[in-house]
Amino acid sequence: MPHTNLKIAIDGPAGSGKSTTAKLVAKALGLLPIDTGAMYRAVALKVLREKIDPHDEEKVVEIAGKVNIEQKLENGEIHTYLDGEDVSTAIRTPEVNNTVSIISAYPGVRKKMVELQRKLAKAGGVVLEGRDIGTVVLPDADLKVYMIASLEERVRRRLKELKEKGMDVSLEDVKQEILMRDEMDSKREYSPLKIPEDAFILDTTNLTVEEQVEKILKEVERRFGLKRR
107: annotated binding-site residue? Predict the structure, then answer.
């Protein structure tokens, strides 16, 4: 199988290390990384900007059906565009975090995003990361990776990420945010977060990003005989 057609799904809870790892795995294999969580965040940002109540499911679903969301790889980084505007930084605020936890549970929103994600992945040669890629978006993915990590480590990573972006948040705030997201992700009726039956499970608690990437690349080589570029 040529590496250009490979479809890799990477799932896991918040703070498990999906985004950075997916991007580096894609780079090593010459694939396109797609951050599906950023797509939901873009919808959440639009909801906030339009001053729509995130609990108004009908209006939120309507917004999700109208927005134009694109992703481009620029200087090795995934940039998310909302109606032509680069919102890569704007979608990483606490306000968006709180809103996306609500709107991402709506079946209508998830249906719209899944359609977009499948369209992007149709030709292959992609690494999609999110929370329902291996179970819903790409159940036929060539490799399904499910990343886990301890709560303490996930909180530490998320706090570090937010601090580096200049956001004034406390450890307890981040912990509560992750616990809330975990509960909503696992209990939502439509496409809940769960481990795909045939997933390669990777515990990243005590691994560096480089070690996480290396383990996935070794699994790709073991299964498909493919080596990094």
Answer: no
